[in-house]
Predict the structure.
Amino acid sequence: QLQLAESGGGLVQAGGSLRLTCAGSGFTLNNYAIAWFRQAPGKEREAISTISRRDGKVTSYADSVKGRFTVSRDNAKNTAYLQMSDLKPEDTGEYYCAADPRTLFSLENIDYKLLEAWGQGTRVTVSS
């Protein structure tokens, strides 16, 4: 059974950094692209970054995080990461990762019906 687990959230001051981890179990993460989402209180879930399967050479970012967040993966550890820098209060929310089996995958073609696994989320709170 495909399972993902996020960790690394917490409380940080504006301008600070956090690194979120998305750990896979029950499957080989290498075969899946990974997407990161966030949901701010009272708002809809927003896709913010993706990384392609296998070599992770293709990444994409929402405008709201571009230049501040970096997605990566370590297939040997069955793990993906989201490095978040220069955090802002508007980055506050619950952060999730999800797995997609497609080779061509980016923020442009996210299809919730095709996402095969979701984590339980990790909370990020950025204070001003």
In short: The two ends are 40 Å apart (CA to CA). The chain has a mean pLDDT of 95. Residues 30 and 124 are 26 Å apart (CA to CA). The first strand starts at residue 3 and ends at 7.
